[in-house]
Each structure stands twice: as structure tokens, then as C-alpha cells.
Amino acid sequence: MHSTRTACSTQASWAGPPVETPEVRTDLSPEALASPDLALSNDIIRTCVHCGICLSHCPTYQVRHDENDSPRGRIVLMRNMLEKGGTPDEMTVKHLDRCLSCLACEAICPSGVKYSKLIGQSREHIEAHYPRPAVQRGMRHLLAKLVPSPGLFRMALIAGRAARPMRSLFPGTLRAMLDALPGHAARRPSAVDRPQVFPAQGPRRARVSMLSGCVQKVLEPGINEATIRLLQRHGVEVVVARGAGCCGALSDHMGMAEQAQPMMKANIEAWLREAGAGDSIDAIIINASGCGTAVKAYGHALRHDPAWAERAARVSALAKDVTEFMTDIGLNADLVRPERTASMRVVYHAPCSMQHGQHIVHQPLDLLRKAGFEVAEPPDSFMCCGSAGIYNLLQPEIAGELKRRKAWSIRSVDAAVAATGNIGCMTQLADAVGIPFVHTVELLDWATGGPEPQALRGSKPPGSAQLEKAVSESASGPVAGSNPTI
């Protein structure tokens, strides 16, 4: 099959001189197109017109200014790789590995290119056909085993804190892992993460299951506790289902479908068991937006499996971010304690997986304002912070630059506290913004009668002098000599 679409030479004004963009075409054989995955990738590639609008929103292009590190450049690389088949070349793998999968390009694309599905298929192809160097391969598989297991992750966290003073002796990913450790020790396991049912307070309005997750309940178990309290207070019964665990996003993002899909199926089985136990569930609540994006894609991930496709699609339809669900049922204004919130200014960091992956934009902001907080957004709120799952471990240089830019952006806003809806963003940015960093649901819980978030205890809002000092220490802007709007 041979198809052609005329390219457009439009490019953002700061992206440098115009580049020669070839016609977008595909040349996959009829035999290759018999594969549903390749047929889908072919259709997605042909949707792209190479207009270049995505360049202004692509974090790696803004850092590196390399066409191969832009969405449209990667689409050409993926097209060439899939047409050729077999072993990808090293350059292609390098540039596809640098993609954060932040999906800012997909959110802004006027042609509707489903980039997330294309990069996902391409990563599976790389995983199946590219012989990575032994050390790189070993580190990726170590992370795929370590991070989804709360027990192993907790042990690694303890060992990492002991080794951190010797970080200069470690290379690459190992050093990045030590740098990414939170400033506090591993929290004690929370009792709420065990399988159980939390009854609604007052008349029951809804019954939901909550994903307790993996990394989050080790690093910040208070987030799950706050989520359950907030929902109970609003008449929601919360079920922590037996057998549910890691969502599988980490392995899936590395193209490791064989490792990711058993985790997906375990969650589907656990949640639908609750849904079919004589008392159905109204939603599956997720309070880490990276996990939410993954669960909402279960239907796509398992679409070719006749035993699981329908059940996976049902779970994806039930999945809701906690702020999405709270918007649906409404925050009870009578519960709000204005003495806690009226004088607090919050800067809200929008996770990519929430705003681009799930198209949840206004809900967290509206809820915080309804709870009485004054809410501000940082400049360039669409731009990724560099966390992106374990991207900050595998690509520490790019992730570090994005962290510095995002931290500057947040610190430029005169706020007492920063809030977000993703544990990865919190871990990436907490030590760099100069103010407490909490989950949105922790603030909503506190505002409606819950305990003060741990990060706020004993903290003092920065005065203007402290803020000015923090901003000046951040290299006087995102990058000296670069476009300030990245």
C-alpha cells in the first residue's frame, strides 16, 4: 500500500529556520497491513501533515532543538522503522527513548494524530527487536521489577538513602535513582491500603473502588488516606479491592507488554469482582494521574484479547480521577472551613498525564477554589516537569533541565503551597520549588475537616523577600539566552 499526503511547512517562529519536510507517506506491504497494530500505526502516521504546531509544546524539542526529538521528526523515524521491520537502528531508538510520552503534542495537534498509540506500538517493536546493551537492558528490567512491588521498592528506598552520600561513585541511571530519592525516609505502611471497605458517612450516595497503587503508598501514604476521608465525608463508600495492585503503566511505557498486561488483568479481575458481588461500583477512583491515564487505556491495550477486551473496556469506562469524580458529585460547601483556606494561595501544577492524557484541566482548579483557596497557575503550565514515570531515571539530563525550568516557573508565582495530582510530579519537584508540595486531594480533605497535610505542618508561607531570593537563585529564568516561554 502506498499513500501520500502533502506536508505543510508551517513552523513556530522560534523553532529556527524552516526545515525541508518530505511528503508524509507510508509504504507498508499488504502483508504488514494484515496486522491490526501496523494498520492502526499506518493510519495514524498518515494523519500527520508535518505542520510543526507541536514543536512549541514538545519538551524535548524545546530543550534540544533537534527535529528528531520533535513529534513530527519521531513520526518519520517510526514510519521508517515500521516499514523496514526487523531490528531498529540505534539512532531511531535513541530519539524514541527521549520521548516523555507527555502527550502535549497530541493535545494541541489540529489533525488529531493519536501519537500515544503510535509511540506505544513503536516501543513494543523496539522491545521485541532491538538488542539493548547489557547494562541498559538490565537497568530497565530491574526498574520494571522493583517499582511495581511496594515491598521491594521500600527496601530499595532504604538502601538508596544509605548509599546516597556516595552518589558520586555511581554512574548514569544509578546516580539518577539516588538523586530522585525523596528528602524524607520511607513512610510507614498505611492500614488503609489493605483490602477492606470504608463505609460512607451519612446516606450513601455512591460506591467506588480505589486503586491504592504501588509507589505512591510507599512514598506518600497520606494521599490514599486523604482520598478515602474526603470520599467518605461526601457519602461515598470506598472499597480497596483484594488482588488489585500496580496499574502496569511503567512496564507498558517501556514497551514491555508481557510484563504490563498481567498487572492490568489482575486489576480488572479484582475490580469487576467487586462490581459483580451483588453491590455494583459506580467508579474506579485513581489519585495518581499517570495511573489514571494507563487504566483508561486498558481497553486499547487488551483490545485483541477476546477473553479480556470487553472487561478491559468496562474498567476503562469506570476509571475516574478523584478530582473528576468529586466534580461529578460536587464538593459540599457546608463542610469547608474558611479559617483554614481563606488566606492560603496555592499554585497548581497540572500533570501531563492529567491535562493531556485525560483532558482533565479545570476540575482540580475549580475544586480548590470552591474549597476557599486562592489558586494560581504557573507560566507554561502545559509543559512537562520531566518526571514522566521513570523518564527522570533513564534520561536524567533532559529530565533535569525540564525540572529546573518547571521549578523556576512555579517559584515565580507568589504562593504558599504547590499542589498537583500525580506522585511522580511531586517527587520530581518537591525539593526544588522552595514551598511545600502536596497532592490536591490532601488540600481538599484538610479544607473539609481532615488533618493538616504532613508537608504543611510547621511550614511557614514564604514572604516576598524569600520569594524574590528563590527566583533569583534559579538562574534568572528558565534558561539563559533561550526563549523564556520554552
UniProtKB/TrEMBL annotation:
The keyword Cytoplasm does not apply. It comes from the Bacteria. SUPFAM superfamilies: 4Fe-4S ferredoxins. Transmembrane segments: none annotated. The keyword Iron applies. Residues 1-25, 452-486 are annotated as: Disordered. NCBIfam families: PRK11274.1 (NF008434). This is Glycolate oxidase subunit GlcF. It comes from Paraburkholderia pallida. The lineage of its organism: Bacteria, Pseudomonadati, Pseudomonadota, Betaproteobacteria, Burkholderiales. The gene is glcF.
